[in-house]
Amino acid sequence: MVGSAAGGAVVSLVLFAMSGHALARPSATSVVMPAIGPSLAGAGGLVAGALVAWAVSRPVANAFRRAALTMMAVMGTALVAGATLPAHQMAGRLGLAVVAALCLVVIVVARRVFLGGAA
Fold it and tell me: Is the pLDDT of residue 22 over 70?
């Protein structure tokens, strides 16, 4: 859950930062360039979700189970990333900020629930 939220936060924050720039809008001269930014945001989010899930699942001794938890986080990140498109279409940059804020709330709540607020 934390890995998915971390990856989703990365995707939505990168898209939020990009949405005001020229790469976020298609131009008549370049068809490929506008796709690079969102692709990199998605890939970065997937990597961030995997790394966070792998780090959080450190207490799990079995590497196979740890890898399975990491893959579930990657799939969860993909689901959250899929929610960024409708959020951006409905509310623009504010929608992306709301998705990022929800991801951060999930991280904080999961930390308090599963770790008891420990540092």
Answer: no
pLDDT digits (tens, 9 = 90+) for 26-51: 565 555 556 777 888 889 999 999 99
Cα–Cα distance measured from residue 83 to residue 2, given in angstroms and rounded to the nearest whole number: 17
pTM: 0.80
| DSSP state string for the chain | -HHHHHHHHHHHHHHHHHTTSGGGS--SS-SSHHHHHHHHHHHHHHHHHHHHHHHHTTT---HHHHHHHHHHHHHHHHHHHHHHHHHHHHHTHHHHHHHHHHHHHHHHHHHHHHHTT--
